[in-house]
């Protein structure tokens, strides 16, 4: 049996399409090792025609590590580790901003796996940007300035209270999530724990301010970094087909779910693998 996986790069900095792999079957150790090395190199991987169940998606995700259970989003029936992102007329998209998943905890996710279950007639692409490419494009004096800084990441920046007042139970869940997730600090530049490559680690979704400098300095620097980190040169864009799967390294990327399809419906399933404390 040929277990060799093929990776076709989609750009010089980020993204590759994977072929000769069936995610509905348990991966051999050799297949998983190739997949993981490909992920480290390309930062986001795409696979077509993967009709996986939530349980199969969880089984794949567990190979990468322990899974995160989201404090707000609903989950697949019987599989609490798989969150359901179902956007439609009564539930407008809220992830149409550049963000890195769950950076509001001490150990943000290492890896995420997203499966397309129902798609709009057109639109709904997702874009990813490489924090490694963004960091490497900065000048040396600017890198030196940023290397010593930490940034605050806050759950409430993306999950604002007014969105969670439809029912009393929903509001109570939001309040519990806020109490459980006070703001945390992460380095502005993080070093990948395996590849040891440096990456810019701020995102507009959750980063609120830079610590140890004035508010005006923080605002100016963050505005620049938010713009710089998602320049088209550092991006890859994926046009979804039903049963596509994307796997990305959340430690060194951010992404944007294009909301151009609303009010059509889009249903995605996501597994989120816990990571380590950024350093």
Automatic annotation (TrEMBL):
Its EC number is 1.14.11.17. Belongs to the TfdA dioxygenase family. PANTHER family: ALPHA-KETOGLUTARATE-DEPENDENT SULFONATE DIOXYGENASE. Coiled coil: none annotated. The keyword Oxidoreductase applies. The keyword Oxidoreductase applies. The gene is tauD. InterPro entries: AtsK-like, TauD-like_sf, TauD/TfdA-like. Residues 7-272 form the TauD/TfdA-like domain. This is Taurine dioxygenase. It is an enzyme of class 1 (oxidoreductase). GO terms for molecular function: taurine dioxygenase activity. Keywords: Dioxygenase, Iron, Metal-binding, Oxidoreductase. The lineage of its organism: Bacteria, Pseudomonadati, Pseudomonadota, Gammaproteobacteria, Enterobacterales. It comes from the Bacteria.
């Amino acid at each position: 049996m040929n277990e060799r996986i093929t990776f076709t790069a989609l750009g010089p900095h980020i993204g590759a399409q994977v072929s000769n792999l069936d995610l509905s079957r348990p991966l051999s150790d050799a297949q998983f090792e190739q997949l993981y090395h490909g992920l480290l190199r390309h930062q986001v991987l795409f696979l077509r025609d993967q009709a996986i169940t939530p349980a199969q998606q969880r089984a794949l995700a567990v190979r990468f590590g322990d899974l995160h259970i989201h404090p707000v989003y609903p989950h697949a029936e019987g599989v609490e580790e798989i969150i359901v992102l179902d956007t439609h007329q009564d539930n407008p998209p809220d992830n149409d901003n550049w963000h890195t998943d769950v950076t509001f905890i001490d150990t943000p996710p290492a890896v995420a796996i997203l499966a397309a279950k129902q798609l709009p007639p057109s639109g709904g692409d997702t874009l990813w940007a490489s924090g490694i490419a963004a960091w490497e494009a900065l000048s040396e004096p600017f890198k030196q300035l940023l290397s010593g800084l930490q940034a605050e990441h806050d759950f409430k920046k993306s999950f604002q209270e007014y969105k969670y007042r439809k029912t009393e139970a929903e509001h109570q869940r939001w309040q519990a999530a806020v109490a459980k997730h006070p703001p945390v600090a992460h380095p502005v530049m993080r070093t990948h724990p395996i590849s040891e490559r440096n990456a810019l680690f701020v995102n507009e979704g959750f980063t609120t301010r830079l610590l140890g400098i004035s508010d005006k300095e923080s605002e100016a620097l963050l505005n620049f970094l938010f713009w710089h980190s998602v320049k088209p040169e550092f991006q890859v864009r994926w046009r979804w087909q039903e049963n596509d799967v994307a796997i990305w390294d959340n430690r060194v990327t951010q992404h944007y779910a294009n909301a151009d399809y609303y009010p059509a419906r889009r249903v995605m399933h996501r597994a989120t693998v816990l990571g380590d404390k950024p350093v």
